[in-house]
Amino acid sequence: MYQCDARHTGKIKYNSVRRPTLARSYTFDNLTGDITVGTDGTIYVPVGWLFGSGFLYAIDSDGNFKWSYQFEGICSPGRSVPAIAWDGTVYVYTNGNYNVAGQERIYAINPNGTLKWEYLEEVAAFVTDDLSSPVVASDGAIIYSSMNTASTRISSDGTYLSDLLDNYYNSIYSSPAMVYRDTVYIREDGAIKAYRSAGGLR
């Protein structure tokens, strides 16, 4: 998972492998993003950049194909890292990679590869290729950054909750990171700012 966990803390409790050897491999037909690994060992890989269809692949720990989900329209899931909630739901952020036909969306995919819900970002003044990866708060809310919305918070059922920032159209080109007490760190206009997950500066 991006930065080790659903909150992007960057903390790891395992010793690294000093001399890794290839155990298995799986080849994709398009460019891939960074992987996320579930608690059962399933490897989730966003596939697709530029101007075409995007997919989320699920590969088991032995390197075997489990399933794939095709996202709607033109999108670039390969520019984002999926987040996994405590119930196994996989959240993926997609955008059009500067293609006006591709709108920003958050997808919630069940562990069996079926669509749980889809959230369409309604505020889309800019065509963006933001490299944002969502985080999951302790209450199950999903938070993601965007050049269009600054930073948006939606519920685990796909309902809009709030924006963390009061000022829309801030220049945010990074993923939020979260620590305990649900403090969210966001790089905004050249500064690092700490927000409460429910909104407002901490």
* Oligomer category: single chain
- Into which percentage range does the β-strand content fall? 25-35%
- Uncertain segments are none
Q: What class do helices, strands and sheet pairing give?
A: mainly beta
First-residue to last-residue Cα separation: 26 Å
Mind summarizing the main beta sheet?
4 strands, antiparallel
Give helix and strand order, one letter per element, not per position.
EEEEEEEEEEEEEEE
Beta-strand segment tally: 15
- Arithmetic mean of pLDDT: 77
Radius of gyration: 16 Å
Contiguous helical run count: 0
C-alpha geometry: globular
Strand order in the largest sheet: 1-2-3-4
Please give the share of residues in helix.
under 10%
Describe the model:
This protein has 202 residues and is mainly β. The chain has a domain of 139 residues. The protein is 0% helix and 33% strand. Strands 1-2-3-4 form a 4-stranded antiparallel sheet, with no helix packed on it. The chain has a 4-stranded antiparallel sheet with strand order 5-6-7-8, with no helix packed on it. The two termini are 26 Å apart.
Question: What descriptors fit this protein?
Answer:
single chain, 202 residues, mainly beta, four-stranded antiparallel sheet, 0% helix
Question: Concise description?
Answer:
The chain is an all-beta fold and 202 residues long. It has strands spanning 36-37, 43-47, 55-59, 65-70, 83-84, 90-94, 105-109, 115-120, 135-136, 142-146, 150-154, 160-163, 177-179, 183-188, 191-196. A hairpin with a 5-residue loop joins β3 (55-59) and β4.
Helices and strands, with pairings:
Layout: E1 36-37, E2 43-47, E3 55-59, E4 65-70, E5 83-84, E6 90-94, E7 105-109, E8 115-120, E9 135-136, E10 142-146, E11 150-154, E12 160-163, E13 177-179, E14 183-188, E15 191-196
Antiparallel strand pairs: 1-2, 2-3, 3-4, 5-6, 6-7, 7-8, 9-10, 10-11, 11-12, 13-14, 14-15
